[in-house]
Amino acid sequence: MHKSGFVNIIGKPNVGKSTLLNALIGEKLSIITNKPQTTRHRIIAIINEEDYQVVFSDTPGIITDPHYKMQTAMNSFAYSALEDADVLLYLTDTVEPPEISDELVQQLNNMESPKILVINKMDISNTEQIGEIQKWWMDKVQFDQVCAISAMEKVGTNELLTLILGHLSEGPAYYPKDQFTDKSERFFVSEIIREKILQLYHQEIPYSCEVIVNSFKERESKSGPMIHIMADIIVNRKTQKSIIIGKGGSAIKKLGTEARKDIETFLEQKVFLELHVKVKEKWRDDDRSLKSYGYLQ
Ligand SMILES: Nc1nc2c(ncn2[C@@H]2O[C@H](COP(=O)(O)OP(=O)(O)OP(=O)(O)O)[C@@H](O)[C@H]2O)c(=O)[nH]1
Ligand SMILES: [Mg+2]
């Protein structure tokens, strides 16, 4: 018998959804930072085995109070994961006080598919905190199962996978068995650059940036084949452009070096990375920009 299904991870920003996705598939696919709203798209990652295919979705953290159209689009990606889940993983942690809208409670309780409450970051929580969080959630939502894990330390993640497989029913492979994501190499390259922006810059800067890879070419160099990548960093205001660049170009140089190293690891190839900064005022509220950056259809 061949089993398959869509297993969708949702939850508030920063609870560790992307860390869990990567732990489940055993690869660094989704970017992870200690800043909320790191993930902006729905990203599919597939586990392919002879007798099953699990299609996981990582989603943006649900934003309670979206300020920009971009954030509304991010929420739509998260909510879309409620619609096609064969199994839903609702991820939470014990770090931030629990919070959920009545609307989402209702949506969760109306779902027919099994839903598992996953309490993450058990490495930094005690039993009492986990018990309290579990009680708070179980009073609101009728979860089928609860489990505590540490996605970062991969504790409890194998047991979670076993639980998930137990919920999957007989079905065909939805994707070719050699495919492990729905996103392109260009997408992951732009995500790696964005991850470095989130790590290296402060306050509003990372949230004002978008990264677009506009050229990706294999070339011969003296030291062998090399991928030449050109990417634009879009910022919201002129002042942000000079912050990204830094004094004498020092900040963007550091960004380029760090991003290139991780891109080389990801692509397993030598990379030449060229970054350009462009200003596009209020792009986060501009339909045309949002469309061309993949936030709107
Ligand atoms: N201590 C601890 N930290 C964790 C664990 N899992 C994730 N983190 C940290 O929590 C932070 C957020 O992790 P992400 O995986 O980016 O969280 P996310 O839910 O995908 O966040 P958004 O994409 O912003 O919605 C990072 O600093 C992670 O290292 C865990 O099990 N234990
Ligand atoms: Mg994420």
Fold topology:
Blueprint: E1 3-11, H1 17-25, E2 43-49, E3 52-58, H2 69-83, E4 87-92, H3 102-110, E5 115-119, H4 127-140, E6 145-148, H5 157-167, E7 169-170, H6 185-200, E8 210-221, E9 224-235, H7 238-245, H8 250-267, E10 271-279, H9 287-292
Parallel strand pairs: 1-3, 1-4, 4-5, 5-6, 9-10
Antiparallel strand pairs: 1-7, 2-3, 8-9
Helix pairs in contact: 6-8
Notes on the protein architecture:
There is one protein chain. 36% of the residues lie in helices and 25% in strands. By secondary structure, the protein is an alpha/beta fold. The longest helix has 18 residues, at 250-267. It has two domains: 3-170, P-loop containing nucleotide triphosphate hydrolases (Rossmann fold, 3-Layer(aba) Sandwich), CATH 3.40.50; 185-292, GMP Synthetase, Chain A, domain 3. It is globular, with a radius of gyration of 20 Å. The chain contains nine helices and ten strands. Strands 1, 2, 3, 4, 5, 6 and 7 form a seven-stranded mixed sheet that branches. The chain has a three-stranded mixed sheet with strand order 8-9-10. α6 packs across α8 (250-267). It has helices at residues 17-25, 69-83, 102-110, 127-140, 157-167, 185-200, 238-245, 250-267, 287-292; strands at 3-11, 43-49, 52-58, 87-92, 115-119, 145-148, 169-170, 210-221, 224-235, 271-279. Residues 17-18, 30, 38-39, 58 line the site of magnesium ion (MG).
Features:
single chain, 297 residues, alpha/beta, Rossmann fold, GMP Synthetase, Chain A, domain 3, 2 domains, 7-stranded mixed sheet, 3-stranded mixed sheet, binds guanosine-5'-triphosphate, binds magnesium ion
